[in-house]
Design a protein that fits this description.
The chain is an alpha/beta fold. It folds into two domains: 126 residues, Rossmann fold, CATH 3.40.50.300; 76 residues, no CATH class. 38% of the residues lie in helices and 24% in strands. The protein has ten helices and ten strands. The strands form two sheets. A six-stranded mixed sheet has the order 6-7-8-3-9-10, with helices on both faces. The protein has a four-stranded antiparallel sheet with strand order 2-1-4-5, with helices on one face. The longest helix is centred in the middle third of the chain and has 14 residues. 35% of the residues are buried.
């Protein structure tokens, strides 16, 4: 058993099968882009990995443990963090306060107060701010950040939980070209220490970040390989690369 593996995953809603015998394996410290046409099953796959939905059959294995069907909080505790397409930041709180909330492990505010002053928290905060470039915005309310900064804040919030596997759903949607380039730089630094699965339809961005590209079609694995291998695959070109719409 390796770092992360999906084996013959299936998900059906009544008589409709949305994930059909889908299997992938991810090597540690690898960035995998999950791409495919509209309705291919990419977001459902992310939901199944994180426990947001339960699979009909198949297995999901992470760090030598079968995590299939566990609840969301149990999977998060094991080291899988997810950022959704729409940022879920606290707009009335500052950047620092958002990062403190993300790092909270107790409902007791006094315990959290002392924890936030521990050297390990300060070190993690410094590391995350350096990666995302949010240091100058630390005391800024999240509600007045730009779109790109808001996305980076949520990336930072996921990182404060110190996951080993990071899942991102269309992280550059709505970004300017400059913001996309900065996000690519963030991801290329992240994959030196983390493993990432990124659902994305922007193939220019995929080219900048992907170690491996996994193409889904109708809930199944269509192809997997480097960006060069995927672009040269006639079946992929037929079902996806001519259609850049995503879901």
């Amino acid at each position: 058993m390796g770092f992360f593996e999906i084996r013959d995953l299936c998900k059906s809603f009544d008589t409709v099968t949305v994930i059909n015998q889908f299997s992938i394996e991810l090597v540690e410290q690898t960035l995998c882009c999950l791409v495919g046409p509209n309705g291919a099953g990419k977001t459902t796959t992310m939901d199944l990995i994180t426990g947001r939905q339960k699979p009909t059959s198949g297995q999901i294995l992470f760090c030598d443990e079968d995590i299939t069907g566990l609840d969301e909080h149990e999977i998060a505790r094991r080291g899988i963090g997810r950022k959704f397409q729409v940022p879920a930041v606290f707009r009335d709180l500052t950047v620092r306060q958002n990062l403190e909330v993300a790092c909270s492990r107790s409902t007791n505010p006094v315990k959290n107060f002392f924890r936030f002053r521990e050297p390990v928290f300060a070190d993690k905060l410094e590391e995350v701010l350096a990666l995302t470039g949010l240091g100058p915005r630390l005391n800024t309310e999240a509600g007045i950040l730009s779109h790109g900064e808001t996305q980076w804040l949520e990336i930072a919030m996921v990182l404060m939980q110190d996951p080993r596997l990071l899942l991102f759903d269309e992280p550059v949607a709505g970004m300017t070209e400059q913001e996309i380039d900065k996000t690519a730089a963030i991801f290329n630094r992240l994959k030196k220490t983390h493993s990432l699965v990124v659902v994305e339809h922007d193939m220019a961005f995929v080219k900048q970040i992907a170690d491996v590209v996994t193409v889904m079609h109708m809930g199944s694995l269509l192809a997997q390989g480097t960006i060069g291998e995927i672009e040269a695959n006639e079946r992929v070109r037929e079902v996806y690369l001519g259609d850049t719409e995503d879901a």
